Amino acid sequence: MGKTKSADKTPLDDLDFSILTYLQQDGRISFTVIAEKLHVSIGTIRTRFNRLIEEGTINIVGRVDPEKVGFHSYAHIAVYVRPATLKDAVAQQIAVMPEVSFLAMTSGAYDLEVNVMCRDNDHLLEFVNELSKLEGVYQTKTTLYFKVYKYAQPDLGLLKN
Protein backbone atom coordinates (compact mmCIF):
# COMPACT_ATOMS: atom_id res chain seq x y z
CA MET A 1 0.00 0.00 0.00
CA GLY A 2 1.41 3.46 -0.96
CA LYS A 3 2.26 6.25 1.40
CA THR A 4 -0.04 9.20 1.82
CA LYS A 5 1.08 12.51 0.39
CA SER A 6 1.71 14.00 3.86
CA ALA A 7 3.87 11.00 4.81
CA ASP A 8 6.02 11.62 1.72
CA LYS A 9 6.97 15.17 2.75
CA THR A 10 10.60 15.82 3.54
CA PRO A 11 11.10 17.92 6.67
CA LEU A 12 12.02 21.51 5.82
CA ASP A 13 15.52 22.66 6.69
CA ASP A 14 17.14 26.10 6.88
CA LEU A 15 17.93 26.11 3.15
CA ASP A 16 14.30 25.35 2.29
CA PHE A 17 13.12 28.19 4.53
CA SER A 18 15.66 30.57 2.95
CA ILE A 19 14.45 29.66 -0.55
CA LEU A 20 10.82 30.14 0.51
CA THR A 21 11.64 33.52 2.05
CA TYR A 22 13.23 34.77 -1.20
CA LEU A 23 10.26 33.50 -3.20
CA GLN A 24 7.80 35.25 -0.85
CA GLN A 25 9.63 38.53 -1.43
CA ASP A 26 9.68 38.07 -5.22
CA GLY A 27 7.97 35.07 -6.82
CA ARG A 28 9.82 35.80 -10.10
CA ILE A 29 13.32 35.75 -8.61
CA SER A 30 15.66 33.54 -10.64
CA PHE A 31 17.27 30.39 -9.33
CA THR A 32 20.63 31.96 -10.23
CA VAL A 33 20.07 34.91 -7.90
CA ILE A 34 18.85 32.70 -5.06
CA ALA A 35 21.82 30.36 -5.52
CA GLU A 36 24.26 33.28 -5.41
CA LYS A 37 22.67 34.75 -2.28
CA LEU A 38 22.65 31.39 -0.49
CA HIS A 39 26.09 30.26 -1.79
CA VAL A 40 24.81 27.00 -3.30
CA SER A 41 24.51 25.67 -6.84
CA ILE A 42 21.65 26.49 -9.17
CA GLY A 43 20.98 22.74 -9.38
CA THR A 44 20.49 22.60 -5.61
CA ILE A 45 17.95 25.43 -5.78
CA ARG A 46 16.15 23.83 -8.73
CA THR A 47 15.97 20.44 -6.96
CA ARG A 48 14.71 21.98 -3.71
CA PHE A 49 12.19 24.16 -5.56
CA ASN A 50 10.80 21.20 -7.52
CA ARG A 51 10.46 19.15 -4.31
CA LEU A 52 8.65 22.02 -2.56
CA ILE A 53 6.24 22.24 -5.51
CA GLU A 54 5.69 18.47 -5.72
CA GLU A 55 5.02 18.15 -1.98
CA GLY A 56 2.54 21.03 -2.07
CA THR A 57 4.57 23.19 0.32
CA ILE A 58 4.51 26.06 -2.17
CA ASN A 59 2.70 27.03 -5.32
CA ILE A 60 3.58 29.99 -7.48
CA VAL A 61 0.70 32.30 -8.35
CA GLY A 62 0.27 35.89 -9.47
CA ARG A 63 -1.24 37.72 -6.50
CA VAL A 64 -3.36 40.68 -7.57
CA ASP A 65 -4.34 43.76 -5.62
CA PRO A 66 -8.12 43.23 -5.33
CA GLU A 67 -8.93 46.95 -5.38
CA LYS A 68 -6.86 47.60 -8.52
CA VAL A 69 -8.57 44.86 -10.52
CA GLY A 70 -12.13 45.76 -9.59
CA PHE A 71 -13.02 44.15 -6.26
CA HIS A 72 -14.41 47.07 -4.25
CA SER A 73 -16.38 45.17 -1.61
CA TYR A 74 -14.38 42.99 0.77
CA ALA A 75 -16.14 41.46 3.75
CA HIS A 76 -15.98 39.03 6.65
CA ILE A 77 -19.04 36.83 7.09
CA ALA A 78 -19.73 34.86 10.26
CA VAL A 79 -21.85 31.81 9.42
CA TYR A 80 -23.96 29.98 11.98
CA VAL A 81 -24.81 26.38 11.02
CA ARG A 82 -27.72 24.33 12.42
CA PRO A 83 -27.65 21.45 12.98
CA ALA A 84 -23.94 21.35 13.79
CA THR A 85 -23.59 18.07 11.90
CA LEU A 86 -23.88 20.06 8.64
CA LYS A 87 -20.76 22.21 9.23
CA ASP A 88 -18.52 20.22 6.88
CA ALA A 89 -21.17 19.97 4.17
CA VAL A 90 -21.84 23.71 4.33
CA ALA A 91 -18.09 24.48 4.32
CA GLN A 92 -17.56 22.30 1.23
CA GLN A 93 -20.27 24.21 -0.64
CA ILE A 94 -18.88 27.59 0.41
CA ALA A 95 -15.31 26.60 -0.51
CA VAL A 96 -16.16 26.33 -4.21
CA MET A 97 -17.79 29.76 -4.42
CA PRO A 98 -15.42 31.97 -6.44
CA GLU A 99 -15.88 35.04 -4.20
CA VAL A 100 -14.39 33.21 -1.19
CA SER A 101 -10.79 34.11 -0.37
CA PHE A 102 -10.64 32.53 3.11
CA LEU A 103 -12.76 29.91 4.88
CA ALA A 104 -12.27 28.32 8.30
CA MET A 105 -14.22 26.44 10.95
CA THR A 106 -14.06 28.36 14.21
CA SER A 107 -14.71 27.91 17.89
CA GLY A 108 -16.82 30.41 19.75
CA ALA A 109 -19.87 32.37 18.73
CA TYR A 110 -20.16 31.23 15.10
CA ASP A 111 -19.25 28.11 13.15
CA LEU A 112 -17.57 29.26 9.93
CA GLU A 113 -15.57 32.35 9.07
CA VAL A 114 -15.71 33.42 5.44
CA ASN A 115 -13.84 36.27 3.77
CA VAL A 116 -15.11 37.32 0.36
CA MET A 117 -14.09 39.71 -2.38
CA CYS A 118 -16.94 41.09 -4.49
CA ARG A 119 -17.16 43.63 -7.31
CA ASP A 120 -19.40 45.96 -5.30
CA ASN A 121 -22.01 45.97 -2.54
CA ASP A 122 -24.74 44.68 -4.89
CA HIS A 123 -22.55 41.68 -5.70
CA LEU A 124 -21.89 41.18 -1.96
CA LEU A 125 -25.64 41.25 -1.28
CA GLU A 126 -26.21 38.61 -3.98
CA PHE A 127 -23.48 36.46 -2.43
CA VAL A 128 -24.92 36.71 1.10
CA ASN A 129 -28.39 35.86 -0.24
CA GLU A 130 -27.01 32.75 -2.00
CA LEU A 131 -25.07 31.77 1.10
CA SER A 132 -28.21 32.06 3.22
CA LYS A 133 -30.03 29.59 0.95
CA LEU A 134 -27.60 26.75 1.71
CA GLU A 135 -29.12 23.95 3.76
CA GLY A 136 -27.84 24.28 7.33
CA VAL A 137 -27.06 28.00 7.20
CA TYR A 138 -29.06 29.32 10.13
CA GLN A 139 -27.76 32.89 10.27
CA THR A 140 -25.02 35.13 8.87
CA LYS A 141 -23.42 38.32 10.13
CA THR A 142 -21.50 40.40 7.64
CA THR A 143 -18.79 42.90 8.47
CA LEU A 144 -17.68 45.09 5.58
CA TYR A 145 -13.99 45.98 5.42
CA PHE A 146 -13.72 49.69 4.60
CA LYS A 147 -9.97 49.57 4.06
CA VAL A 148 -7.45 46.73 4.19
CA TYR A 149 -4.12 47.83 5.64
CA LYS A 150 -2.26 44.56 5.30
CA TYR A 151 -2.83 41.46 3.19
CA ALA A 152 0.16 39.15 3.37
CA GLN A 153 1.59 35.68 3.67
CA PRO A 154 3.02 34.58 7.05
CA ASP A 155 6.54 35.74 7.89
CA LEU A 156 8.61 32.53 7.91
CA GLY A 157 11.10 34.20 10.26
CA LEU A 158 8.56 33.71 13.04
CA LEU A 159 9.27 29.96 12.95
CA LYS A 160 12.93 30.36 13.91
CA ASN A 161 13.87 29.98 17.57
From TrEMBL:
Pfam families: AsnC_trans_reg (PF01037), HTH_24 (PF13412). The keyword DNA-binding applies. Signal peptide: none annotated. One of its GO terms (molecular function) is sequence-specific DNA binding. InterPro entries: AsnC-type_HTH_dom, Dimeric_a/b-barrel, Tscrpt_reg_AsnC-like, Tscrpt_reg_AsnC/Lrp_C, WH-like_DNA-bd_sf, WH_DNA-bd_sf. GO terms for cellular component: cytosol. The keyword Acetylation does not apply. GO terms for biological process: response to amino acid. Keywords: DNA-binding, Transcription, Transcription regulation. Residues 12-72 form the HTH asnC-type domain. It comes from the Bacteria. This is Transcriptional regulator, AsnC family. PROSITE patterns: HTH_ASNC_2.
